[in-house]
């Protein structure tokens, strides 16, 4: 760029993208890089984990062996002595919280090298000590810890007095760099910056309305507080900023969708939908009627519907979706139903055809004169079947096209795609959704379905650009499910589990047995292609035992091994036992499900391929092995596969979880309630935030550092209101470039996937 005088002027430096090596030197920058911190902006957004007050000591009883810690403690004693056995000298110090002790050990070639430590570690002094907790002769200890003595490790007396009176930020640190060196690095980077160097994503009107400080001040508040009120004020502002940036992007997408053109699909009197309603063998629930009316009204408008339909397992979402699809077909359009697995896609096609009867057999003998067709497209179909279904979709003969990712293929064409229904939306990514919706001449209407109940705060945060409808009633005629936790090491209980299974088989019912793995030598979570459907929602690392030590790893149960074991059990003698998993061919999967549904093979040992959508009314028992390793939501979905008919269901959760562990809490909660929304709220409390937002599924870290969806519902609601008002006035955010930049920076790439569920 040039000035008015024609001189070349260097472009302004983006102070937040400066590499730390330039600002702090190679050695410090290398240590910070191990924490994922590479630029000044990265470092300034590396917030303290907590704050220590001088005189407020860390509870040393909570330390776990092997843990990297930073603790504040008072020195009780420090002694240097020679080591007779191996030469050299050692310093042994004891620090305390007043009740519990922690030992510090330093080694050197001679006593002289330890005198500085001895001089600083005087009895009565308080310091921060960091290192990995070890154990020696029953005592917890830190070997060669880094430490900083409060009021001593400073350059002058005034600084010592200030340090001794203000909160001390404790940062997430590592072996390469302790917390106080991170704090010093932050000050080096932050102090020279002016407000102009730190563009604020929060527009000034929003800050004024919510009485929030600007970003430069908030960073000072959290990194260099002089009182507790400072860091609380700073964290409040930064937490609100995280919520606002998310909500602004959701509001922008919502506005973009509303501004795009769709084809109105009003209801036609005397059409397929009326015929379908007339032949329904049951009465719609009040919820189904209400939600159906909402969807019908939105389909009648020339702007695209953007709606999330969530409902309890068995609440009748499929019927609601089918009625929406028939309205679109009546209006001359087509509907595409995208399912995550071939098993579920085939199940949907069968269900829709069964519900429609002759209405789904247009052109066939006995088909309704004004009916349509339901086409099924999957990746493994034979050439002839695929060609026929492609032709039905392209010609418009098939008003409803059901499929897996195969629907996204360039070879799939629609005559007039008017509605996209996405089942279990969290299984699909951004490009997949967009590829399908791009097949419409105008933007198709969108209906997203999920059987995983979503708490209000998560719906606002993850699906904030969608209107939400909820089905809570379960259709009449279902008997419900009873759930029990079965201790895996209690032989009498496990024997009773299989006797109970035999009793149900003898009564003409079906039994599912779910395992986390396919083969005994598989990794913990089976892989395979996206259509395998064997993804196990394993919950983090193994739980810690109540005393703090890790629970010993046990080999997880595998489908092939368990099937063989059950065939050898006397109690199941003569009972055909089938297998179902994602590595089977589509034909074998279809045959396994058909044999199970018909009762030819009444016991099915399966992976979680049967988790969603599979509907066998005669199935009454669900046995989940290694249940402690599954998430609550997934267990709730599995439980929903039984008790779908007139006979009561039974869910048996076979578990190794020790009492008092988070896993035991999950299972007990599941046994106590069938309310999916209660379970979802508990799951939200137990899980990591990244898992809640889906970022863990995409392999990306959550961009939320301070915001907690389970805790900050009111704040998220306020941020959504502010963001929508701002976007209503300026849909492109052209007036707020710092906000646009923050959206691009924080939600770019894979991190954006959890927002792209719409």
DSSP E strands, number: 21
Output the number of helix runs: 26
Strand content: 15-25%
> Quick one: CATH class of one domain?
Alpha Beta
Describe this structure in words.
The protein has 758 residues and is α/β, with parallel strands linked by helices. Among the domains are: 50-170, Nucleic acid-binding proteins (OB fold (Dihydrolipoamide Acetyltransferase, E2P), Beta Barrel); 272-471, P-loop containing nucleotide triphosphate hydrolases (Rossmann fold); 481-673, Rossmann fold (3-Layer(aba) Sandwich). Helices cover 36% and strands 17% of the residues. The protein contains 26 helices and 21 strands. The chain has a 7-stranded parallel β-sheet with strand order 11-12-10-13-14-9-15, with helices on both faces. A 6-stranded parallel β-sheet has the order 16-21-20-17-19-18, sandwiched between helices. Strand 13 (417-423), helix 15 (430-437) and strand 14 (445-450) form a beta-alpha-beta unit. Helix 8 packs across helix 9 (228-259) and helix 16 runs parallel beside helix 25 (713-729).
List keywords for this structure.
758 residues; alpha/beta; OB fold (Dihydrolipoamide Acetyltransferase, E2P); Rossmann fold; 7-stranded parallel sheet; 6-stranded parallel sheet; 26 helices; 17% strand; globular; disordered N terminus; disordered C terminus
At a glance:
The protein is of the alpha/beta class and 758 residues long.
């Amino acid at each position: 760029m040039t000035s008015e005088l024609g001189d070349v002027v260097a472009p302004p430096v983006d102070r937040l993208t400066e590499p730390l090596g330039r600002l702090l030197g190679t050695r410090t920058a290398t240590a910070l890089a191990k924490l994922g911190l590479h630029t000044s902006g990265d470092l300034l957004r590396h917030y303290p984990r907590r704050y220590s007050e001088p005189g407020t000591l860390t509870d040393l009883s909570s330390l776990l062996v092997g843990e990297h810690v930073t603790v504040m403690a008072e020195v009780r004693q420090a002694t240097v002595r020679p080591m007779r056995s191996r030469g050299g000298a050692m310093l042994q110090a004891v620090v305390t919280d007043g009740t519990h002790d922690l030992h510090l050990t330093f080694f050197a070639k001679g006593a002289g090298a330890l005198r500085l430590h001895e001089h600083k570690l005087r009895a009565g002094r308080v310091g921060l000590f960091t290192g990995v907790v070890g154990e020696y002769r029953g005592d917890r200890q830190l070997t060669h810890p880094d430490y900083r003595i409060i009021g001593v490790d400073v350059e002058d007396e005034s600084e010592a007095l200030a340090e001794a009176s203000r909160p001390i930020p404790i940062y997430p640190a590592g072996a390469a760099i302790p917390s106080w060196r991170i704090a010093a690095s932050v000050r080096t980077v932050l102090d020279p910056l002016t407000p102009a160097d730190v563009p604020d994503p929060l527009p000034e009107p929003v800050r004024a309305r919510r009485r929030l400080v600007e970003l430069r001040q908030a960073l000072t508040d959290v990194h260099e507080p002089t009182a507790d009120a400072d860091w609380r004020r700073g964290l409040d502002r930064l937490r609100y900023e995280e919520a606002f940036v998310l909500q602004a992007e959701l509001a922008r997408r919502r506005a973009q969708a509303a501004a795009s053109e769709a084809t109105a699909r009003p209801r036609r009197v005397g059409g397929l939908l009326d015929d379908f309603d007339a032949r329904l063998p049951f009465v719609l629930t009040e919820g189904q009627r209400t939600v159906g009316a909402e969807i019908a009204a939105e389909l009648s408008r020339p702007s695209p519907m953007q709606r999330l339909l969530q409902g309890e397992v068995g609440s009748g979402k499929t019927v609601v979706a089918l009625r929406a699809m028939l309205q679109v077909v009546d209006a001359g359009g087509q509907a595409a139903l995208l399912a995550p697995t071939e098993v579920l896609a085939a199940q949907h096609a069968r269900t829709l055809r069964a519900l429609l009867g002759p209405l789904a057999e247009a052109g066939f003998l006995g088909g309704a004169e004004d009916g349509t067709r339901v086409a099924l497209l999957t990746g493994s179909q034979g050439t002839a079947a695929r060609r026929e279904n492609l032709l039905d979709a392209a010609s418009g003969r098939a008003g409803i096209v059901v499929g897996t990712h195969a629907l996204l293929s360039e070879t799939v064409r629609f005559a007039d795609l008017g509605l996209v229904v996405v089942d279990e939306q969290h299984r699909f990514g951004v490009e997949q959704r967009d590829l399908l919706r791009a097949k419409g001449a105008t933007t198709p209407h969108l209906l997203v379905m999920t059987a995983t109940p979503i708490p209000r705060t998560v719906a606002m945060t993850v699906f904030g650009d969608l209107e939400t409808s909820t089905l809570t009633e379960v259709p009449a005629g279902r008997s419900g499910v009873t759930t029990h936790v079965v201790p895996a090491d209690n032989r009498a209980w496990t024997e009773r589990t299989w006797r109970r299974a035999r009793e149900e088989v003898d009564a003409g019912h079906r039994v599912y047995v779910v395992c986390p793995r396919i083969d005994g030598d598989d990794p913990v979570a089976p892989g395979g292609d996206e259509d395998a459907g064997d993804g196990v929602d394993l919950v983090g690392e193994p739980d810690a035992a109540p005393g703090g030590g890790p629970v010993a790893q046990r080999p997880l149960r595998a489908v092939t091994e368990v099937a063989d074991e059950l065939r050898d059990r006397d109690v199941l003698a003569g009972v055909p036992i089938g297998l179902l998993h994602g590595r089977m061919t589509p034909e074998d999967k279809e045959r396994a499900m058909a044999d199970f549904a018909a009762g030819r093979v009444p016991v099915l040992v399966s992976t979680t391929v049967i988790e969603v959508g599979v509907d066998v009314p005669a199935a009454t028992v669900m046995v989940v092995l290694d249940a402690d390793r599954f998430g609550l939501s997934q267990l709730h979905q599995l439980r929903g596969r039984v008790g779908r008919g007139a006979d009561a269901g039974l869910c048996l959760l076979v578990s190794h979880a020790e009492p008092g562990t988070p896993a035991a809490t999950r299972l007990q909660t599941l046994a106590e309630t069938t309310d999916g929304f209660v379970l979802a709220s508990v799951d939200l409390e137990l899980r990591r935030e990244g898992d809640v937002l889906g970022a863990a599924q995409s392999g990306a870290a959550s961009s939320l550092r301070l915001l907690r969806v389970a805790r900050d519902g009111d704040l998220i609601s306020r941020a959504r209101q502010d963001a929508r008002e701002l976007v209503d006035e300026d849909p492109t955010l052209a007036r707020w470039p710092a906000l646009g930049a923050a959206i691009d920076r924080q939600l770019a790439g894979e991190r954006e996937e959890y927002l792209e569920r719409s």
